Amino acid sequence: ANPRVKLQDGWNNDTSEAGSATVQLVDPQANLVGSPSAAVAAASGAITFSSLNYVSLPSAGYKLRYSLAGTAFTLDSTAFEIRANAPATLRFVDSETVGNSISGLGIKNTAGNDVRVEVLDANGYLVNWDNATTITASVKTAAGAVTALTGRTETVVNGVATFDALRLTGAAASGYVLSFTASNAGEPVNAQVLDGAAFALMPGSATQLIVSQAAAGARSGLPFTTMPELQIRDAEGNLITSGPDAALNVSVSVELLPPATGSIPGLSTTNVNLAAAAGEATFAKLDAQSANAL
Questions:
Q1: pTM for the complete prediction?
Q2: Which residues touch 48 (CB under 8 Å, ≥6 apart)?
Q3: Which of 82, 135, 193, 261 has its CA 20 to 30 A from that of 163?
């Protein structure tokens, strides 16, 4: 309903005398917002303010201040709340878009935290009463082979969706892009899409050891003519080039395979250890007789 005030005399009696008044918004900190409205004349002792429309930070505690023209008299309304308008657009919280992440682990934003997307009204204010919009992530640009994107859909709570289970598993590469699409039938935000920035997907945890070069040219008492080389990779086959897993210790041993029997002195029980560098271990001068590095 439109705000309406009555004119009264000094004894609080209603009066039909002529008069006019203006109205102005007062924020929760008691500051006047904007300019007063145009003066509205009384009709039969009452003044009705129609078509008032305020765009201000959503909050409780706003008031309207009525000022009687030609006097210093003012009157404040009871406090009320200005709410955000209908859900209309999406935005990353604090402008922290999708950042570099690890394959198979949680997708993080550029600050290293969970990705958060907020719902805004047409004026750019957070729709903090929205608990209905769902937001779903998808791979818009795949820089490499994608195995899975999980934890894709979240429902907003007070206008914010937190993707705390979002995981992308795939080939390590730079240039992945995720899109976030809103769903809320009947609201302007429905089908709105927010694209993240391009990011790099880095290798996950070590799960396998790959022989990139097999040993060859074994002669008793002499080093192999071709030394074995091995690589540490994650579940997706990505070479792990950095982090603790890139420098794991790798051991090599030589044993007889069935149906062969017997033993090779110094080989059946002796391992040679080497710390990998950038996920690769290259053994040098392995002796086929003693399995010791010469």
A1: 0.77
A2: 2, 3, 4, 40
A3: 82
